[in-house]
Design a protein that fits this description.
Elements lengths: L7 H13 L3 H8 L8 H13 L3 H14 L4 H13 L3 H14 L4 H13 L3 H12 L7 H12 L3 H14 L5 H16 L3 H14 L4 H13 L3 H16 L10 E9 L2 E8 L9 E8 L5 E9 L1 H5 L5 E7 L2 E8 L5 H12 L7 E4 L4
Helix pairs in contact: 1-3, 2-3, 3-4, 4-5, 5-6, 5-7, 6-7, 7-8, 8-9, 9-10, 10-11, 11-12, 11-13, 12-13, 13-14
């Protein structure tokens, strides 16, 4: 049937319905070769079908065709702006978003898209202003609430970032990934502020919502170590070990996890625990990374299993240090040591209050 037999409103409402039902391939296959005969809004729906299929050139071509027929629809300029953002042409995106805003200054999406353009150009002050405006519109979308704290983080303003993450959490949908992101960052910032109770609340809620978020399990372990509530950390450690055995851990959790971090003499020291053990062979179980002034690891202090000591009925672990190719051994401790005792030993080694009982240069492998 010829398109001429369709009332223009009918083709537009048909395409709107098909788009709402996510029939993008159908829209493209049945309507692409007829668009020049369509009204502006119908062309728009064909263009957004291409937008959903990430065919950027076709989107821009059809949006321009739609604009030729109707220059008053802000949505066409908005999708153009989003497409220019996607392909990295931010100045053109800014021009398109401003045109959409000129036609309709009530839509949160338009301001949020403009904020994305400025953010991508690292024009953080402009992005911040526009995102704030986006949050003030009727029915604001989630994105500006999630981007504002990220800008404060980029500007190294942690207090404002934390405040904005709390606002984000209070505003956006609990079902969204952005809510999880806000919770994680609240937990992280509060932990770094040594506000362990507030950090605990955030990470516990996150784990309740996403039980297999193992990075948050590791962060909550650090919170309990910060509070010296080591028994509360134990079930979380057990969960990580179980996930390790089942091959569920990825990234930096694949072989070990950070269970504590603490400052000593201006240095931030990270304490890690390795999952794997090599029965009868030497391995490092708990590793403390000590940084230099540039923040790079200068040396490590670690618990090392001692098969010889165990064979002789002695303690399981030696406390050793690797520094500049030299390995040193200091003292021995039992397998069921108290963490505070190990931490004191580590600090004494850092402060050179304990002399090594043995040292040796490592050979080349």
């Amino acid at each position: 049937m010829s398109v001429i037999n369709y009332a223009q409103e009918n083709i537009t409402s048909e395409l709107e319905k098909a788009y709402g039902e996510e029939k993008y391939d159908l829209i493209i296959s049945e309507h692409s070769d007829k668009v020049s005969e369509y009204p502006a809004k119908a062309i728009y729906y064909v263009a957004v079908a291409y937008y959903m299929k990430a065919n950027d050139n076709k989107v821009l071509e059809l949006m321009d065709l739609s604009i030729q027929k109707d220059k008053t629809d802000p949505d066409t300029y908005f999708i153009k702006g989003m497409t220019f953002n996607y392909i990295g042409q931010f100045d053109k995106a800014i021009e398109s978003f401003n045109k959409a805003i000129e036609l309709d200054s009530t839509n949160s999406n338009y301001f949020s898209g403009l904020g994305d353009s400025y953010f991508s150009q690292e024009k953080y002050d402009k992005a911040l202003s526009v995102y704030r405006t986006a949050t003030e519109k009727n029915e604001p979308i989630d994105r500006p609430f999630t981007m504002i704290p990220q800008i404060y983080a980029e500007l190294n303003q942690p207090e404002k970032a934390l405040e904005a993450f709390y606002k984000s959490k209070a505003t956006i949908s609990k079902e969204s990934d952005s809510y999880i992101n806000a919770l994680y960052n609240i937990g992280l910032y509060e932990y770094l502020n040594k506000e362990y109770n507030k950090s605990e609340i955030a990470f516990k809620e996150l784990i309740e919502l996403v039980p297999n978020d193992y990075h948050s399990h590791a962060k909550l372990i650090q919170v309990y170590y910060g509070k010296k509530e080591y028994e509360k950390a134990k079930p979380l450690k057990d969960m990580l070990y179980k996930a390790y055995e089942q091959g569920k851990l990825t990234d930096n959790l694949k072989s070990m996890f950070c269970f504590d971090q603490f400052e000593w003499n201006g240095k931030l020291i990270f304490a890690y625990e390795r999952f794997a053990v090599k029965e009868g062979e030497l391995y490092y179980k708990h590793i403390f990374y000590v940084p230099n002034e540039k923040g790079e690891t200068e040396f490590t202090i670690q618990t090392e299993n001692s098969p010889i000591s165990v064979e002789l009925g002695g303690p399981k672990y030696a406390v050793g240090m690797d520094r500049n190719g030299t390995h040193s051994t200091f003292v021995f401790i039992d397998e069921n040591f108290k963490y505070d005792d190990l931490k004191k030993i580590v600090i004494k080694i850092i402060d050179k209050q304990i002399e090594p009982s043995a040292s040796s240069r490592k050979g080349k492998k």
